[in-house]
Specification:
- The chain is of the alpha+beta class.
- It has 13 helices and 18 strands.
- The strands form five sheets. A five-stranded mixed β-sheet has the order 4-7-10-11-12. Strands 5, 6, 13, 14 and 15 form a five-stranded antiparallel β-sheet that branches.
- Helix 9 crosses helix 11.
- The longest helix has 17 residues.
Length: about 425
């Protein structure tokens, strides 16, 4: 599980919360498998401490959490503001993107934003970031963090003037290459690690962290916005080998929405215009093989009834799936053909869809079933003697120490000796 902080007021900008309290949202999310450990703050401004299961990367942003609230309370998602008009020369004439490792990067998009003025963010932005556990850096970096927190899709911003030749090459690292990352640490790259390079050198570790050479500075006026999809195993391997764990790597290694790059880019352009005065160049540079639309999965009502232990009815099954954004068609034989939305990368098998039905209808509806057999441990005189001895020793004031059960032979001898000395 990954813990995130969610702003209730921010959710209210994405989904109609009319009449709902933070407590209502917290209870509904917890009942649906997204445990809210606590919430705090003034009414309407609460921050929810949310535990997101590893198989639900779609909920690692406010939009995903808002979708769950919309499904739980039959509320509508609110339209998001459109990005401002594009200006100037097209991005395609300035940015040269090539994906040389399509197996590790199914999609790479880039936008160019000109006329940026780097400075401090407004207090409201700093407060919003701090409420969600991040600190304000500058208006451009803050914009990228706001995109991450809202959409759950990490983006990266480069100082375009420091990207050699205006070239972006998504490729594997070569022998002997190094990169000084944003934390100021020089890192030796292993061949095979996926990097974002310019015409001559790596400038970022794909899906993990950017490089210091192309970071946003006070002098930055042109920003290249990256929103991409990286193969989870590649990101996980790079992060582990370098001992790096970032907000971006946590999300990429769990899987991101392949179509989420579009929403992330639109939001980034809008925020950069609002916070830094920049204007996007016309056109989205969009490179890489397209992922095929997921094939529908057959969901058999008889299988749903067997796994849930009760019959919710086919209409309720269908409605539950539709409310969760899942496309549903009915097969001639009465089975349901379920097609997951692009943001639900975890829905692969029939059992996954059955769980979604159970989640939405309520786990509390699953009936308890008593076993027809009584299971009792076999009589063991040695175990019985051990239990008597334990009871007698406890009555004499002794304390029992439970040591690790998976220690190698001899590793617990010191702990046993210490226990004997205490006694």
């Amino acid at each position: 599980r990954l813990a995130i902080l969610v702003s209730f007021a921010w959710l209210g900008e994405i989904v109609d919360l009319g009449g709902l309290r933070a407590r209502d949202a917290a209870e509904a999310l917890t009942a649906r498998g997204l445990t809210v450990d606590s919430w705090s703050g003034e009414p309407g401004e609460e921050v929810l401490d949310l535990d997101v299961p590893a198989n639900r990367p779609d909920c690692l942003g406010h939009v995903g959490v808002a979708r769950e609230i919309a499904a739980a309370f039959s509320r509508a998602l609110l339209p998001r503001p459109a990005p401002p008009p594009e200006q100037g020369a097209p991005a395609a004439g300035a940015v040269d993107v090539a994906v040389e490792a399509p197996d590790l990067c199914p999609r790479y998009t880039a936008r160019l934003v000109r006329g940026v003025r780097v400075g401090s963010s407004p207090p409201r932005v700093a407060r919003r970031l701090e409420a969600c556990g991040l600190r304000s850096v500058n208006n451009v970096v803050d914009a990228s963090n706001l995109v991450l927190l809202e959409t759950g899709h990490p983006i990266h911003t480069f100082d375009f003037a420091r990207v050699g030749g205006g070239a972006i090459r998504v490729r594997r690292a070569r022998p002997g290459e190094t990169l000084v990352t944003l934390d100021g640490v020089p890192r030796d790259l292993s061949p095979g690690m996926l990097v974002i390079a310019d015409e001559s050198r790596p400038v970022a570790l794909a899906g993990v962290i950017g490089g210091a050479s192309s970071e946003i500075r006070g002098s930055t006026t042109e920003v290249l916005v990256e929103a991409a999809v990286f193969e989870p195993g590649s990101v996980r391997s790079t992060a582990r080998r370098l001992g790096l764990a970032t907000d971006a790597s946590h999300r990429f290694e769990r899987g991101v929405d392949p179509d989420g790059v579009l929403a992330a880019q639109d939001l980034a352009v809008r925020l950069l215009a609002e916070l830094s005065g920049g204007a996007a160049a016309p056109g989205l540079v969009d490179v890489g093989p397209r992922l095929a639309s997921p094939r529908p999965v057959r969901v058999r009502p008889v299988r749903v009834r067997r796994l849930l232990g009760y019959d919710p009815g086919v209409d309720a099954m269908r409605e539950a799936l539709v409310r969760l954004g899942i496309g549903v068609e009915e097969a001639p034989d009465g089975d349901l053909l379920a097609r997951p939305p692009s943001f639900r990368v975890d829905l692969l098998r029939e059992a996954d869809f059955v769980e979604e039905i159970a989640r939405h209808l309520g786990y509390d509806r699953i009936p308890l079933a008593a076993t027809s057999e009584t299971v009792s441990p076999a009589h063991d005189r040695l175990v019985e003697a051990e239990e008597r001895t334990r009871t007698v020793l406890a009555g004499l004031g002794f304390h029992e120490a439970f040591n690790y059960a998976m220690n190698a032979a001899g590793e617990d001898e010191l702990a046993i000796a210490d226990a004997v000395c205490v006694l």
